[in-house]
Automatic annotation (TrEMBL):
UniProt organism field: Microbacterium oleivorans
Taxonomic superkingdom: Bacteria
Protein name listed in UniProt: Squalene cyclase
């Protein structure tokens, strides 16, 4: 799939956190070009703004998953949740390509000072929620923390159908969730990419098969669309599943594993392709409610640079393999 030069120019005119990926993955720029742009993420724009908010204890807003003092505060009664605490901020910085060196001794500081809101557990050990553990696994591998025990948690808690579910630890479900499974897969893949440890590869591929059996979209039991969320694209998607978010993972996993795209992705590809607007862009969906440090993309209903980039990158990868 070729990219309209006007769309490419529009995507380039963006924060370094997006621009370097556009240069590398869509424009095919030489490594020295996109690497120079990537080096700016920690010192300019969104990346620098988030780094500037870090506390002396290594945390953001004094909390692991929620800001300190959140529970019982007026904010806890509002829709959504804040996206400003440590886990969410580190997830953004990692996915934007900030080098771990820019965070200095953050891993050690979090080991000493940060505890989960659930049972006051130590940060790098994770807790009981698979999505939280997935974010922590990927981020810990990026920052060089010892998350080897947390890595073992994933195959130990994989459900019989091959996926994961955040509600399983409370005994509320024995069936996997699209959301939880995708988050687990992304965390496991990040762990392998950053550490080179392939111990989770079989578990990850079994989890990927859970989604592939359902063609990323459907209930296995009825063949119906699993839910409207699969068609609702939003950036940042935080923890939300969509066909686009799933394709983004399968593209990365395919390239990492050196395998061709699975044909069972085709329905999700068609869905993403059909969402392109007449102007060549993809539009922002309903932004997740809750306080954030600042907006990093378009408001709802407007052309989204991030979604357009992610969609074009996935479609380019798929079409190139045809």
């Amino acid at each position: 799939m070729s990219v309209d030069p006007r769309i490419l120019d529009w995507l380039r005119d963006s924060d370094p956190s997006l621009r370097w990926q556009v240069e590398r993955d869509l424009a095919g720029e030489p490594a020295e070009v996109w690497q120079a742009t990537r080096a700016r993420v920690a010192t300019e724009g969104y990346g620098a703004a988030l780094l500037a908010q870090q506390g002396e204890d290594g945390q953001w807003e004094g909390g692991a998953y929620f800001p300190a003092g959140f529970f019982g505060s007026p904010e806890s009664e509002m829709p959504g949740q804040p996206w400003t605490a440590t886990t969410w901020t580190l997830k953004d910085l990692r996915e934007w390509g900030v080098p771990a060196s820019a965070l200095g001794d953050t891993a050690d500081k979090l080991d000493r000072h940060s505890r989960w809101e659930y049972d006051d557990l130590p940060y790098w050990g994770g807790e009981v929620d698979v999505c939280i553990n997935a974010f922590t696994l990927g981020t810990g591998a990026w920052l060089g923390a010892d998350v080897s025990r947390l890595a073992q948690w994933f195959p130990e808690h994989q459900l019989a159908d091959g996926g994961w579910n955040c509600e399983a630890e409370e005994g509320d479900s024995v069936r996997s969730s699209f959301h939880s499974t995708l988050n687990a897969l992304r965390g496991m893949l990040a762990y392998e990419e950053f550490t080179g440890d392939t111990a989770l590869r079989d578990s990850r591929r079994r989890g990927q098969e859970y989604l592939l059996e359902r063609r990323l979209l459907y209930r296995l039991s009825t063949g119906d669309l699993v839910g409207p969320f699969v068609t609702q694209f939003v950036y940042p998607n935080r923890h939300r599943y969509s066909a686009l978010a799933a394709l983004d993972h399968f593209r990365e996993a395919s390239l990492h594993d050196g395998v061709a795209p699975d044909e069972r992705l085709s329905d999700a590809v068609d869905l993403v392709r059909a969402a392109q607007q007449p102007d060549g862009t993809w539009h922002q969906g309903r932004v997740l409610e809750g306080r954030r440090w600042f907006d990093v993309d378009a408001p709802e209903g407007q052309p989204s640079r991030w979604l357009t980039f992610l969609a074009l990158r996935a479609l380019q990868w798929w079409d190139a393999a045809r």
